[in-house]
Amino acid sequence: MTKPDYIMVWEECLAIIKDNTTEEGFKTWFAPIRAKSLVGRTLTLEVPSHYVREHIESHYNDLLLKVLTRVIGNGFRLIYSVRVVGNSYVRTLESSRETPENRAVVLNGDAQRYNGSAYAIPGIQKVKIDSHLNSNYDFENFVVGECNRLGYSAGMSISNNPGKNAFNPLFIYGGPGLGKTHLAQAIGIATKDMFPDKIVLYVNANTFVAQYMDTVGVNHQITDFLRFYQAVDLLIVDDVHEFADKKGSQNALFQIFNYLHQLQKQLILTSDKPPVELSGLDQRLLSRFKWGLSVELTMPDYATKLAILKSKCLRGGVEVPEEILEYIAENVKGNIRELEGTIVTLIAQATFTKKEITMELAHDLIEKIVQTPQNEITVAKISRVVCDYFKIAPEQIASKSRKREVAQARQIAMYLSRTLTNTSLSYIGSQIGGRDHATVLHSYNTVSDLIDTERTFKKYISDLKRILCQ
Predict the structure, then answer these.
(1) Which of 296, 327, 351 is the last residue of a domain?
(2) Do both 148 and 193 map to the same domain?
(3) Percent over 70 (pLDDT), the chain
(4) In the chain, what is the straight-line distance between the N-terminal and C-terminal CA atoms, in Å?
(5) 240 in the same domain as 200
(6) Strands ordered across the beta sheet of 110-113
(7) Least CB-packed of 51, 88, 163, 413 within 10 Å?
(8) What's the pLDDT at 346?
(9) More reliable by pLDDT, 460 or 359
């Protein structure tokens, strides 16, 4: 029995595609596709899911265009037919150059003009999604200081015009307890207040990964998973460093990111490190993290810590003497979370033991509960110790001098700062002569190699660590 023309045409296409792709890629993405019809030069292919179609369009579009032109000829039209929740979803691709104005989407036989969205599905109404936002994490409870002013300003701008601004995505990074989640959720809450109809969703990276794993291997659920996230107007993904080495979840996030960003939907991401320092993440995903604005939240200064303590007391309806708040701000060296925990514990102890909040009570609490470093190691301290050790003036290590002894001391200071502190590469560079993160990373790698190969360098590092940690 003779095969229909459309099957023979598609089999000829598959033979060419197979010679130009890997065996695994062909089996995964092209073997499941079935030809449905060929009318004139219009070929209709049925694909098993939106995910397969999106992957082919992202990775094999040029190859497919060339193959179809070779087999069918110029002026062909390709229609993807995807089975979605009982409806036949169809997308048309033509060999001529497409523009948003001349594409059409057909759903259940009704043609609707393409509106610029690559994968828009007409007829689907806005769904009600729980935003998972904590009402306590709003801007009213967010204390602004030099440590977070840029992030706050960007957040306010985003909430007034989500997606259609220069800060998309907004990448917030910094150490634990510095307010990354609070800032991200505050933007989400402000956006919901300003635009009640917009869908805002907060999700932690580990929750996203768990959701993705639940869908793996289950028919149609990957498609439903992607479509759920693609319905969001503002997506907040917390702790993206947790995606490290989770390839499947990264790929899903990549697909969602591309879809939302193309539609000018807002993305907000948080991490403990800037994009350039993240490891275990696909480079194409990292490159997208850098598209918008990256802001670092740093340790609060004294004035900001005092303002945070006053805000916490005001919200709790508790009066604490000014001098006690000043004492706490001065002596708690940790992050914002530790600072707030200290004042909450102080108030709780005074309430439950029916004691007055006194300086003595605050002193005892900090001494017993809060870990105040007796010998805190900072970038500034490391620089001073390195200069003393090599008998170099402090201004030399921060200068642009390339003298061997100065450059060596500078590289060692950067290496020790990277090893002994939790600060970012960019911060270390800014404190040692205004260098960029690439210079710090190069210095770290250089000293690491020298430690392994030169006994003298190994002794330098050993001596300096002993001095800094004693």
Answers:
(1) 296
(2) yes
(3) 87
(4) 88
(5) yes
(6) 34-39, 42-47, 77-84, 87-94, 104-107, 110-113
(7) 88
(8) 84
(9) 460
Please tell me whether residues 265 and 162 are part of one structural domain: yes
Of 259, 308, 245, which is closest to residue 53 (Cα–Cα)? 259
Q: Check whether 426 has a pLDDT greater than 50.
A: yes
Residue 385: which of 355, 357, 352, 420 has the closest Cα? 420
The tokens describing 349, both together, are 């102890």
CB atoms within 10 A of CB 402: 8
- d(Cα 80, Cα 236) in Å, to the nearest integer? 31
Mean pLDDT of 95-105: 31
Range of the domain at 347: 302-368
Q: Which residue has the tokens 């500034």?
A: 380
- Indicate the pTM of the whole model: 0.56
Q: How far apart are CA 364 and CA 25, in angstroms?
A: 65
Q: Residue 92: phi, psi to the nearest 5?
A: -105, 135
Max distance between CA atoms of the chain, in angstroms, equals 96
Whether 185 and 244 share a structural domain: yes
Q: Whole-angstrom Cα distance, residue 346 to residue 193?
A: 34
Indicate whether 167 and 292 sit together in one domain.
yes
Which residues are CB-neighbours of 329 under 8 A, at least 6 positions away? 302, 305, 306, 309, 339
Strand, helix or coil for residue 234: strand
- 276 neighbors 289 (Cβ within 8 angstroms): no
Q: How confident is the model at residue 326 (pLDDT cuts 50, 70, 90)?
A: confident
